[in-house]
Amino acid sequence: IEPEKVGLDLTGRLTKAAHALINAEAPSHVPLNTYDKGNVDGRHIFHLLLKDPVFVEGLMNPVVMTLARFATGPKGRVNATVAFVKHGAAKPTKLHCDATNVTAPMPPYGHFINISYVLTDYNIANGTLAIVPGSNRWCRPPTPIEQPKCLGGVNDDICIPVIAKAGSIVAFNSNTWHGAYPKTSNEDRIHLSYGFSRPYVM
Predict the structure, then answer these.
(1) How far apart are CA 61 and CA 181, in angstroms?
(2) Among 200, 190, 152, CA closest to 23
(3) CB-based contacts of 159: which residues, under 8 Å, 6+ apart?
(4) Cα 116 versus chain centre, distance
(5) Residue 105: is the preceding peptide bond cis (ω within 30°)?
(6) I need a labelling partner for 126 at 20 to 30 A (CA). Which of 87, 100, 107, 202 fits?
(7) What is the per-residue pLDDT across 50-100, written as a single tens digit (0 to 9) for each?
(8) 142 and 177 Cβ atoms separated by less than 8 Å
(9) Which pLDDT tens digit goes with each residue over 137-193?
């Protein structure tokens, strides 16, 4: 969703608050939000709603709430609020889906939707999101042999890059296969992820 439809004033204030939070919760002070092993490089800063009122405003944005209610119903609930931050170069994030611990075949609808404010430009050099179009209909997670070469695997490159301007929103449901391209730029990569789940998911 283009920045103009999201709200330029709001995304500007979200960006300012995110940078303040990143500086306040530096890895030297909060080592638990630094990841140097496993599937995801970078930092995760959790529980955004408790850290600044503007993050609550971001949650209640009509654009966000429309997407959330469409995907999870009128009784859907907030499942997670996380800032994802990558400084400098970073390795790729392997293809996965967010329906963790759901046995395949998954239902054709998502249990969960990821709605993210893109606060820095999304491009390949900056380690943008990799999406496999139509994978939400396959109702299963990717297998190791299906990991594409562009993300460090051996399979054909079945994913496409999400190219988006800072201030955009990117949304996809929990069945969707996604990952992240290797980040080669020195610019920060920042997005705020608001997760909503169906009411039966705790």
Answers:
(1) 29
(2) 190
(3) 95, 130, 131, 132, 148, 150, 151, 177, 178, 179
(4) 5
(5) yes
(6) 100
(7) 999 999 999 999 999 999 999 999 999 999 999 999 999 999 999 999 998
(8) yes
(9) 999 999 999 999 999 999 999 999 999 999 999 999 999 999 999 999 999 999 999
At 79, the amino acid letter reads N
- The side-by-side arrangement of strands in the sheet containing 189-197 is 34-35, 42-46, 77-86, 189-197, 112-118, 169-173
The pLDDT of residue 126 is above 70: yes
Interacting residues of 66 by C-beta distance below 8 A, sequence separation 6+: none
The overall pTM is greater than 0.90: yes
